[in-house]
Specification:
The chain is mostly helical. The chain folds into two domains: about 50 residues, no CATH class; about 110 residues, no CATH class. The chain has eleven helices and no strands. Helix 8 runs antiparallel to helix 9 and helix 8 crosses helix 10. The longest helix has 26 residues. It comes from Friedmanniomyces simplex. This is F-box domain-containing protein. InterPro entries: F-box-like_dom_sf, F-box_dom.
Length: about 220
């Protein structure tokens, strides 16, 4: 059996790189799959790394729908890292939708009035999802590209704010640009998450963060 696997691996890695560049985008994408492909051989890792731009373009075409891209208008899908971020966010949204019936139907009678989540049923699930997507937009607003450094002496540039300040300013600007309905969704998802935390403990709230929703 081991000899068969070795021969199969050897045959696969001996194919011309041009052929693999056509094959790889058709393999259903996930960050784990991409990591596994990198680990096949040093040649595979080099191929995937060196041709990131062209492979990313084709992977987006085959594995990321246009409707998914529209959910994150502030995220430039220009690297494997941001592609993994989109994948993690979509998994989280699907996980929330799957767990939502259990979240709103259970209660904790020992939580002093915080034990019921039945009020979250029905129309509030779309509001919760909209709030999550707006939180993603806030995260993406902080991903400012670095400013071009036109001054070789960095010590003389005392007017340039630190990157953290620029990121915070971008998020504040986004908040000021949002309509009242969007701000209400943001407030709702924060309040609802606190209620869910009080009833269910760290799950499923912790699971949302663990999946890299804000990665």
């Amino acid at each position: 059996m081991n000899s068969i696997i070795t021969r199969s691996t050897t045959t696969a890695t001996s194919l011309p790189p041009e052929l693999w560049l056509n094959i790889l985008p058709h393999i259903p994408y996930s960050p784990l799959t991409l990591t596994t492909l990198r680990l096949i051989s040093h040649r595979f890792n080099t191929l995937i790394t060196r041709h990131e731009t062209s492979l990313l373009k084709d992977i987006k075409l085959h594995s990321v729908s246009a409707s998914t891209l529209q959910l994150y208008p502030g995220l430039a899908l220009d690297s494997y890292k941001t592609l993994a971020t989109v994948h993690a966010r979509q998994e989280t949204l699907e996980d929330v939708a799957r767990k939502w019936p259990d979240i709103v139907s259970t209660s904790n009678r020992e939580s002093d009035g915080e034990g019921t989540l039945h009020w979250l049923k029905g129309r509030y699930e779309p509001l919760f999802t909209a709030g999550l997507l707006l939180l993603c937009r806030l995260q993406d607003a902080a991903r400012e590209p670095p400013r071009p450094d036109t001054n070789t002496d960095t010590n003389t540039d005392t007017n340039t704010p630190p990157s953290g300040s620029r990121s915070h300013a971008a998020q504040i600007a986004l908040l000021h640009s949002l309509p009242a309905t969007s701000l209400a969704c943001l407030l709702f998802v924060c309040l609802a998450s606190v209620k869910i935390l009080r009833v269910h403990g760290p799950e499923p709230v912790r699971g949302v963060g663990a999946k890299g929703m804000w990665g």
